[in-house]
Structures are given as C-alpha cells and as structure tokens.
Amino acid sequence: MAIIKDTLANRYASSLFALAAEKKIIDAVRKELILVSKQMQKTGSTGRFFNNPLIPSAEKQRVIEDVCNKLGVSTHVLNFMRLLVDNGRVQLLSRISFFYNQLADTAQDRTTALVVAAVEIDEATRVKLAQLLEKKFKKKIVLECDVNPELIGGLKIELNNQVIDYSIKGELERIKEVLTKEG
C-alpha cells in the first residue's frame, strides 16, 4: 500500500513541478507546499477531516481554501490543493511535498537537510551549519529546521537518506543500548 501511495504522490509532485518549472516558480511553490503541509500536519487536518466520507466535498474545499488563503499561497498551490481535495488525495500532501523537494533539489543541484533541534536555531547558526554541510557534502545545502524539545539538547540532521544524531536523547539511547548489551 505504501508503494502505491508513494507512486501517486510522486505523480502529483511531478505534475506540480512541471508547472512550477514552466512558470519559473520552483522555489516559491516549494516554500508554499512546505508551509501548507506543515500547517495541515499541525492541525491534524489531513487525517480525520479530509478522509471522512460524511463531510461534503464543498465543505472540504472551503476549509482548504481558508487554510491556503490564511497562509497567502499562490493561485497555483491553491488550485493544486483543490485538486487534491477533489481526488481525495490530501492525505498524500507530506509525501507529495517530499517528492517535490527531491525534484527541485535535483533540478537545482542542491540537497535539502532536515535539521531538528531541541530549541529554535538562530539565523547565524543556520548559515554556519549550512556552510559546514556544504563543505562536507560538496553540494549546495538548503536547511529545513524544526524544533523537538524531546531531543533535550543538540540536533539531528537528515540528509541524503542519512541520519546524523548529535542530540542528547540520541546519546542517552546509545548509552542505554551499550549498558543493556553488557548487563
């Protein structure tokens, strides 16, 4: 089932990417797609509401338009979200965003790194971290930053299907694993 969903998500992402490339708005659409996806995840809207067959399509359209209008997204992204609602595919939004980002990164010879920290990362630290990662991976790096207080401290970086865990939580888990193997 996951393969089918990824195949669908990739097709939607490819179609949106083709439109964005034609209009020369790849990065703008990327940012808006991430914005809408995060908002939908934050409110939990992608699950129960949009998958509920008892809620009329017109109501779902109204909600998606309200979300997009509040976020100030372009007509292209708004129409794309309307299409997802019409086709019952809103639940694929985070995967569509993922595949869109991959297409954008490939087209622009860059890589996206997801950086999760225990606290908000200031702009100066973001710039320095991006420079360090660019030097190591020899590629332009775009940082997407998120906050997860459960990390306690430090940060976790996901890049090129690798996870680099410099968090205190990760270190504590590694220590626990060593101690349980020995004991």
Would you give an account of this structure?
The chain is an alpha+beta fold. Helices cover 63% and strands 14% of the residues. It has helices at residues 2-23, 26-43, 48-51, 57-71, 75-86, 93-107, 123-137, 168-182; strands at 110-117, 140-147, 155-159, 162-165. Strand 1, helix 7 (123-137) and strand 2 (140-147) form a beta-alpha-beta unit. Helix 1 crosses helix 6, helix 2 (26-43) runs antiparallel to helix 6 (93-107) and helix 4 packs antiparallel against helix 5 (75-86). The radius of gyration is 19 Å and the shape is globular. The mean pLDDT is 91.
How would you sum up this structure in a few lines?
This protein has about 180 residues and is α+β, with helices and mostly antiparallel strands. It is about 65% helix and about 15% strand. The protein is built from 8 helices and 4 strands, in the order ααααααβαβββα.
For the structure shown, list the relevant keywords.
183 residues; 63% helix; 14% strand
Helix content: 55-70%
The separation of the N and C termini measures: 40 Å
Q: Judging from the principal axes of the Cα atoms, what is the shape?
A: globular
Which series of helices and strands comes N to C? HHHHHHEHEEEH
Residue windows where pLDDT falls under 50 for at least 5 positions: none
Strand content: 5-15%
Main β-sheet, in a few words?
A: 4 strands, mixed
Q: Give Rg in angstroms.
A: 19 Å
Give the count of helical stretches: 8
Q: What is the β-strand count?
A: 4
Q: How much is the average pLDDT?
A: 91
Oligomer: single chain
Which class best fits the helix and strand makeup?
alpha+beta
- Spatial order of strands in the largest sheet: 2-1-3-4
